[in-house]
Specification:
Structural class: mainly alpha
Mean pLDDT: 90
Largest sheet: 2 strands, parallel
Radius of gyration: 21 Å
Amino acid sequence: MMKEHPPHAKPSEVRQSPGKSFLYALPMMLLTLMMLSGGKIPADPQRLFVLAVTYLFFNVLFFLMIHTGKTDRYRATAFITYAILFIVSFISHMFEARGSMSLSQEKIILCEVPFCHLVIPMTLIPAAFTKTIIFPGSITGGFASIASMFVIWIGASLSMGRGWCSWGCFFGGLDDAFSRILKKPLIRKIDPRWNYLPWAVLLAVVLTAAAFLSPTYCEWLCPFKTVTEFQAVTSFKILVQTIIFVSLFIALVIVLPLLTKRRIQCSLFCPFGAMQGLTNRINAFDVRIDPDSCINCKRCMTACPTFSVTEESIRTGRPLMSCMKCGTCVDVCPKGAASFHVRGTPVAVNRNIKRLLFLYAAFLFLAIFSGGTIQDGLSRIIRLITTGSMI
């Protein structure tokens, strides 16, 4: 029997008039202007143009989030754009610094490798027991230092938990993009036992990293080596590693997301994502399903790109800890039962305010974390158009 839909739970509650939406978006406009510009408007016309485009891009999307009451569509636009321009910026930076995407043994020995957040699970145990950071990167200086990435990770984890994977991870935007190409999935049924795979990968890479004092995921399993940097192929072992990287990228980031309309790499393989699920237990925000409003239509379960909504989680009102807070379930719920929530508060009260609080935190993090990369990527595309070279 279908439940009556309480008046306070109407989805239209989160929609706002243009005037009210502008007022709600005004703090974001001011904060992003300060953060993207670094407090100084550039005198160079090209840099000013890139800053203006980036600033308008973010704030138009944030305004539309508030005005329409939809989150995922506009989050994905920013998130996917960030992922694409990250690749443009990073590869250009590598060619400027090294002349290629490949890592020479000299650069590894000199610890000049940019630190990637995917390495964090493999560094924690060796750092605790041996006081050694098992990554050939700079602790504080240079591009993407270890210390800076740890500070960013801790702050994001406390505020968003695994929301990092939908609002901050520059790799996540790639499988997010491919999962949206087809209108309907060609593969609908995924065995739920695959949900244990990222935990198995996490356990394996943590134990092997601790045993061999080496970032084994980076050396053998990371699909994103294909679009960032890789060790120069100078031996049969490195050739095998390179083939694995490319194969995993094609399968997990392109083909399977395309066929399933799910974020396969992020959901069913990434060890960092599995670890981030643990931080979903301690951060300020989560997603909840109000049983009094839910009509058990299961649209949230069908639409969730990360397998985080099950029949059991609908009954308990809590998505699995793999929830990446992308907002898909909130957007598709016809009765407003799924909503962003602030821990320690009643689920069915002040839903719009809670959504706004989450969006301020998550979107501001995305804008700040990605703003410099997007500006650099745009600058390099303009440079390519005007000069024929990105570097």
